[in-house]
Amino acid sequence: MSEKRLNGDDHLERSIDWKQGLAIALGVPLLILPSLGYIPLYMSAAAILIWGLSVLQGFMQSTAYAEMATTFTKASGLPGIAQHVFRTENYQGKYDKGKLIGGFSAWSYWFAWTPVLAIFSILVGGYLHGLFPVLGETFTEYQLSLMAGVVIFTGLFVVNWFGLKDGAKLGYILAALSLIPLVILAVAPFATGHVELSNITGSWWPTDWAWDLHHVLILLGIFAIAQWSACAWETAAIYGPEYKNPSKDVPKALFACGIICFLLFVLVQSSVIGVLGVRGVLAEPVSPLIPVAQAAFGQAGSMITIIMLIFAMILIIQTAYLGSSRAMHSMATEGNLPKSLGKLNRHGTPFVAMLVIGAFNLVLISLGNPASIVAASAIGYTFANGISLFAYVRAKKHPAFADLERPFKAPKNWKNVAMVFGLFNVPLCLIGLVYLNSLEVGWTSTLIGFIVLALYIPIWLYSQHESRLSNNKVTVGV
């Protein structure tokens, strides 16, 4: 047990280097799986361009995040940073509006990552249902998804009980089992000659596209959906308080993961469209990699692909489980959620948060539609990025933060870049996302998204009441 734990200090332990942080974040390229057939539905082969631009957007945003993560080294990634920057020091009133804004950003980030567990558990159930006919005869897809969720959540909870370092070791193993075959599927069709460039160039842009308000709103919504996948490698920064050397480890982990994401997002979408064509992709919107594998490797290839995808999904569930539990821990330690959610075990794992997240996702699995959950989750991610970028601007301009040491500095005047992308997220992409959701999956996802986000208000008010009671007890005790 560390000295910090003995002293009762409820801080996360510095136990990982940039390679371990990268290993945990390497699940992010797999977030392309739910949208491989979705983005081409609206953008045809230009989906390749959308992915590339979205990863570049991630570089712009993550440059700001890297500076903040190394400046506020005691804050837990984006959730902790936004809370720290917006709160008012020594606030004497009843409710600190700045603290509410920072906490809402963290809650939005939590809601962006948490549903990943349910989304990929549903996909695992679906693939198992198709892979093993005997299972399909005995169980429904929902039952398989629910069982997969229980088994995966329990297994990851046990592994991560012993701390983030062991979670990173699991990440190394799963990355090898899932990312290497994903790279093969991205490159092999080009090597074997199964990619027809005419499938890409002949359907580069939708034939009915017009630059009117309707299509511009769709484009903004598409960027919001793509960002949910292609910019999520900022998760490497969320472990800022747990890196041994944050000033060096955070930028290395972030940008190494960003380069990997750029190559994989562009190559995987190019491979799928190049082999199947846009119409072929739309015919297999959920699992277009399976016919790609069949084309490149034959029938045996499809079996390998499904097994690879299952390992890949467990990896991204691991990434989401760790990220969302740290976000919840950060909110609890900042006083923006009930203190019980910030409890750590002796290994420094926020086990109460992990239990709550697992239970919440078992409920989400009952929705049964990954696209609907992604649509709702992306609302939270758009809010989180917008507010976090505004936090960067505030941290650069506010006198309280002017003299802080900044081991990693973004290029000069990067606050202007952050402001542009902050406004791009909120309100532009947010409006586009709500509009796109109304066209594609109706209003249910939008309502679920905003209801979950709105639930933060009463929870936050309760947390403030809890904090005041705790402070009063301390005062009486003194």
TrEMBL record:
<feature type="transmembrane region" description="Helical">
    <location>
        <begin position="296"/>
        <end position="322"/>
    </location>
</feature>
<feature type="transmembrane region" description="Helical">
    <location>
        <begin position="21"/>
        <end position="39"/>
    </location>
</feature>
<feature type="transmembrane region" description="Helical">
    <location>
        <begin position="142"/>
        <end position="163"/>
    </location>
</feature>
<dbReference type="InterPro" id="IPR002293">
    <property type="entry name" value="AA/rel_permease1"/>
</dbReference>
<feature type="transmembrane region" description="Helical">
    <location>
        <begin position="373"/>
        <end position="393"/>
    </location>
</feature>
<dbReference type="InterPro" id="IPR050367">
    <property type="entry name" value="APC_superfamily"/>
</dbReference>
<dbReference type="Pfam" id="PF13520">
    <property type="entry name" value="AA_permease_2"/>
</dbReference>
<protein>
    <submittedName>
        <fullName>Amino acid permease</fullName>
    </submittedName>
</protein>
<dbReference type="GO" id="GO:0005886">
    <property type="term" value="C:plasma membrane"/>
</dbReference>
<feature type="transmembrane region" description="Helical">
    <location>
        <begin position="170"/>
        <end position="193"/>
    </location>
</feature>
<feature type="transmembrane region" description="Helical">
    <location>
        <begin position="253"/>
        <end position="276"/>
    </location>
</feature>
<feature type="transmembrane region" description="Helical">
    <location>
        <begin position="348"/>
        <end position="367"/>
    </location>
</feature>
<feature type="transmembrane region" description="Helical">
    <location>
        <begin position="414"/>
        <end position="436"/>
    </location>
</feature>
<feature type="transmembrane region" description="Helical">
    <location>
        <begin position="45"/>
        <end position="66"/>
    </location>
</feature>
<keyword id="KW-1133">Transmembrane helix</keyword>
<dbReference type="GO" id="GO:0022857">
    <property type="term" value="F:transmembrane transporter activity"/>
</dbReference>
<feature type="transmembrane region" description="Helical">
    <location>
        <begin position="107"/>
        <end position="130"/>
    </location>
</feature>
<keyword id="KW-0472">Membrane</keyword>
<keyword id="KW-0812">Transmembrane</keyword>
<feature type="transmembrane region" description="Helical">
    <location>
        <begin position="213"/>
        <end position="233"/>
    </location>
</feature>
<keyword id="KW-1003">Cell membrane</keyword>
<feature type="transmembrane region" description="Helical">
    <location>
        <begin position="442"/>
        <end position="463"/>
    </location>
</feature>
